[in-house]
Amino acid sequence: MKQLRIGIVGMGIRGKLYAQTLAQSPYAKLQAISDSSSKTLELSTKQFNVQGYTQVEEMLDAEELDALIVATPDYLHRNPVLTAARRGVHLLIEKPFSTSVEEAEEMVAVIEQAGVKCMIAFENRWNSPFVAVKEAIDNGEIGKIININSRLNDTIEVPTTMIKWSQNSTPGWFLFPHSIDLALWLKQVKPTQVFAVGTKKKLIGMGIDTYDSIQAIMSFEDNTHATFTSSWVLPEHMPMIYDFKYEIIGEKGAFYVDLAEQMVRQVTDRYKHMHTLGTSINKQLTGAASYMLHDFIDHLRLDRMPEASAREGLLNTRIVDAIHRSIEQGTVQYLS
């Protein structure tokens, strides 16, 4: 059986996770990798025993790839996406699709013109608590959704240590794509407008010019609403590096999802939650991102159109962009 040949550009935390997942697939293999850091590239080529390239163009010229995983920083998706699509290479792109509406529109146009398959990595669609909630909502268990309230926060370790490019991002670009995509996926109703406020206090005082937190309200054409709050300045010694709570209120009931509550609590010198979602079982990765990649591979080999399409990525980018414009202008932003 011929395996799909997949490349990865961006060998940070996500790129390595995708490489590890590919090693467990019977249908695909990691063919080559690319990273602009020569040190990262050297370490990754040794770890995964593949050819490495500092330029994605060089990799795509030298290797026959069926698909490319784009795991670069959020604001650096355009070049690898356009380069791969124009060569007929299918795409799995990290969220957000882009941090620029203009670039996102250009990317969609090229992807559709090339006829390649594209999936945006909205991984919570493959996260077991949300999968269960989606199934129950689709079965009518709580009736039509009236209200959604999302709170997704990170500790300050994320913008100060984990990602080196936080000054080129915000909690809006880094976190809201998850929360907003879930709302659109669960409700299946067109959003119409957003209003948002943001706070710059702590990080800017540390020399990182970005928002500490953002709060947004999004309205839908059925006259219902969702609220989103995201911050990435929680104390380092929180029980987990993230705190994700999602409330869905319907006409006949409600769901309350708490991903910070991981079913196991560990107490040693400090109290914390053990991260159980995604625990490897029989040496197999079981996290949402791994399930998502396996699904993407199935779409390619079975010639199916992926969900979480480039068009959905574009809408997500438009919404998060409108949220930032609302903060800057202090006005409601209408979504066309």
UniProtKB/TrEMBL annotation:
**Ranges for the Gfo/Idh/MocA-like oxidoreductase N-terminal domain?**
4-122
Q: Per its UniProt record, what Pfam families does this chain match?
A: GFO_IDH_MocA, GFO_IDH_MocA_C3
Q: Which InterPro entries match?
A: Gfo/Idh/MocA-like_OxRdtase_N, Gfo/Idh/MocA_Oxidoreductases, GFO_IDH_MocA-like_dom, NAD(P)-bd_dom_sf
> Gene3D superfamilies, from UniProt?
Dihydrodipicolinate Reductase, domain 2, NAD(P)-binding Rossmann-like Domain
Give every GFO/IDH/MocA-like oxidoreductase domain span.
130-255
Among PANTHER family, the record links this protein to: BILIVERDIN REDUCTASE A
Q: What is this protein called?
A: Gfo/Idh/MocA family protein
Give the organism's phylogenetic lineage: Bacteria, Bacillati, Bacillota, Bacilli, Bacillales
